[in-house]
Every structure is written in C-alpha cells, then in structure tokens.
Amino acid sequence: MSPDTITATHPSAASAPRPVEIALLASVFVVAACGLLYELVAGTLASYLLGDSVLQFSTIIGSYLFAMGLGSYLSRFFERQLPAHFLRIELLVALAGGMLPALLFLANAYVPGAFRFVLYTLVLLVGMLVGLEIPLVMRMLRRHVALRDLVSQVLTFDYLGALAVSLAFPLLLVPRLGLVRTGLLFGLMNAGVALWTLWMFRHELRHLRAHALAGLLTCAALGAALFGAERISTLAEDKFYQAPIVFAASSPYQRIVVTHGRAGYRLFLNGNLQFAQQDEYRYHEALVHPAMAAHGAPRRVAVLGGGDGMAVREILKYPSVQEVVLVELDPRMTQLFSTHEALAALNHYALRSPKVKIINTDAFQWLQDGNDTFDVIVVDFPDPTNFAIGKLYTHSFYALLEQRLAASGYAVIQTTSPLVARQSFWTVVQTVESVGLRATPYHAHVPSFGEWGFILASHRPWRPPEALPAGLRFLSVATLPLLFDFPLDMARVPAEVNRLSNQVLVTRYEQEWGKVASH
Questions:
Q1: Residue 357 above 80 pLDDT?
Q2: 308 is annotated as an active-site residue
Q3: Is the CB of residue 285 less than 8 Å from the CB of residue 414?
Q4: Burial class (CB in 10 A: 0-12, 13-18, 19+), 304
Q5: Rounded Cα–Cα distance for residues 33 and 28 (Å)
Q6: Which of 3, 171, 258, 341 has the fewest beta carbons closer than 10 A?
Q7: Using an 8 Å Cβ cutoff, are 266 and 273 in contact?
C-alpha cells in the first residue's frame, strides 16, 4: 500500500498545518486558470487561421477534454513521490502550454501544410498533462484535508480559476498582451506553481538540486521567450504575410495586421486580405458608386463594417451627403485608420470628417435598436468565414436592413467571388430577395482578389446613373453597365435562403474556398 493511500485512511490528517492546505488550493486555482487559458488560446488561434469558429472551438474543446480524461486515467499509475511527479508535470505544462501559441504561429508560417497536425498534437499533449494535475493535487491534499471536504474545496477553486481566466482572456489578456505573450505568461505561472511545490515539499524530494535546476531552466526559457515575444510574432507573421509588418494588434474581435511592401499597404484581418493599396480603388469604387450615383442626391448614408474608412472616402465625394454613420464592431480598426497618419492618408482622412459619426457596436444589434432610415446603406463585412460573421448575411439581417432603407434608397452588399464561390454568391442573392427587396447583382475584377461580387438591394428597380463623380480611376458611365453582365461560369444557380437557424452559407463558403486552398 502506497504512503498516500495510508494517510488517506486517517482522519487525523485534517489537523495538519493550514498553510500547506492553502498553498495547494491556491495551486488548484492557478493550474485551473492556466489549463483553461491554453484551451482558449488553441481555439482562438484555430478560428483565426482556419476559419469557422464554431467548428474549430468545438473540435478543440472536444479533443482537449478527451486528453484531460486520458490524463486523469493515467494519474492512477503515479503512486509514490507524488510531489516530484506533480512538479515535473507542472514544468512540462509550463513549456508545452506556454509555448503553444508561439509554436502554432511559427507552424502556420513555415509549415502551413502541417498546421492541423501540430495544432492537435499540442492540444492533446497539453490536455493530457493538465488532466494529470488535479488528481495528483487531490491525492496530495488528502494528507491535510478531511475526505468529506476534499472534493468540494478542490472543485470550488478549480471553477473559480476557470471563471477568472474566462473573463480576463477576452477583456484584458488578448487586447493588452496578445496571444503569444499571454501563453508565455501563464506558462510562467505554471512554472511558479512547480517552484512553490519544490519549496513546500523540499524535505520529501530525493533529487532537490535536479528539480531546482529544471525549474530554473524552464523559467529562463519562458522568460527569454517572453522577452522576445515581439520578435517571435514578427518572424512568424513576416514569413506568412511575405512583407514587413508595420502594425499588428489583437483585439477582442480579431487579429489586425498591416503590412507595407511592393503592393503598398495591405490590411489583413485574421489572416485574410481585406485590401491592397495598389488596387483597393477598384473594389471601393465598385462597392460605393453604383448605389450612390443611382440615387442622385443621397443625404444620409450608413456604412456597416468598413472600419478602414475607404468606403467613407468614396461616399464623401458626393456634395449632397450631410451625414455618414459608420457602424464598425472593432474600435481598434476605426482608431487605427483615424490616427495612424499613413493609413489615415489612404482614406483621405475621411474618418476625421465632421460629417462622419462612428459607432462601435454590432451592426445586427444597431439595426434592431434604431428606426431611422438612410438613402444609401453600404454593407462591407468580411466574408462569411464563421457563424459570427455569417449571421450578417442571413434572412433576419436583411429583413432589418430593409426596414432601415428609405423607400427610394439603395443598399449595396459585398458578396465574395461569384467565380470561386458561385453557390455562395447566389445564396446571398436569394437571401436578399427573400425579404422582399430587389436584388441586382454585379461584379468587378480586383487583381488582389480576382473576380469579386456585389449586390444592389432596393425597393425600386436600379437604373444606371447618368453621371459619376470626377476623378474616379476605375469606373466610368460608359463601362459601368458591363459590371452587370455575368458570363456563363458565373451565371445564376439555384440556391437556398441563408437563415440564422441553419447558416448554410458558412458551410457552403468553406467548401467552395476550401477547394481552392487544397489546390
């Protein structure tokens, strides 16, 4: 019978000194917080780099919990020298969990084909190690806590640690530190638990110096990585984006990266290109002017998304415009393109115009809460790569949009590529029509994206404008009608309405763009 089994049978163990009990319960709080943090980091990175956040978080959580269960089962084979085993496991968790985001960023940049393998290997490894922690702590606590109180106390501190990190992760850690620094910081916390264990049980450990050296080396490695976290991120992202990065930040909503190279400035959100300076004028002229010029004299305009201000720049070319309401979820975007001189110059300082009112909120919620109408509404969201964005392409969203559109107004919606994602494009057309709006699809060639699609939505038929603002580089009155001609390989196909209850568009989009990525 092992020593820890013997002590568990004697209730007198509950009279042991309180400081050890408090320290072990505090360790439970820390290891629970760290364990959940690594799970959140893996899920967030997977959704950033692979899209479809529901699928990624679901598979990451499932794999992580399975690995934790496996670790809990394996804990039964640790019988003697429990503090020594716990110390070693903490150091392994510190290294594997703390380095997880940095390793995943580097894998995505240098071996993108192996990214999923690296991702799930690390998730399973960290999950298994985390699964070992709590059972070993519980067995160590049995020396100091009565059996009837053991489970309740351990689970209380376990859940409190999980609550603390689940709140801090989106509100504090990611916005302030980023994913790489956050992972390394919590790795150091795991290493700190190991060193505290070393001190508390120093009289029981057989190889005290070896354990101390391992702990110090682990802390040194994590500390060095934390010191060089910016360099690690830059190294990985420079390789991935193939151009020097001039700005990078993680907000609660997305990873924002701006590069500057031969193509000028380029904006990436969660790794997906949003615009390239060399040809963004093609995209934004095609997005804005068919609706604005057809209206004639729009006074009130809303822009949903488009936090880079490029669409607002085009809108302000119309003297009739009195107010532009820009509804952008992420305040980091509007702040960046308002205050960064080089980027603000790209939108001609449009976000500083007194005509522009910036509202940082969810566009779906904003449509629900208001009742005023607009002459033109520009919908410039990222493509529906996940369900959070996919809701902005649903029947429910367009029904709200229809209510906020003036009787003589036009809405325009950016709608992925009708060539690459043909079924997805016509799904959006079908969904717009399902709320009673006329849908007038068109497309334009933007070299950075290829053939790109848009949809005009209105209560009245769209007619080509007789004039366009001066100084446009892409559109002209003569060539504008050509955008509304669809060749056979982009012609309409039967499609299903995209609803909140099914979100068929996200699945279809992933399938169609996935075929391109696989080639």
A1: yes
A2: no
A3: no
A4: buried
A5: 8
A6: 341
A7: yes
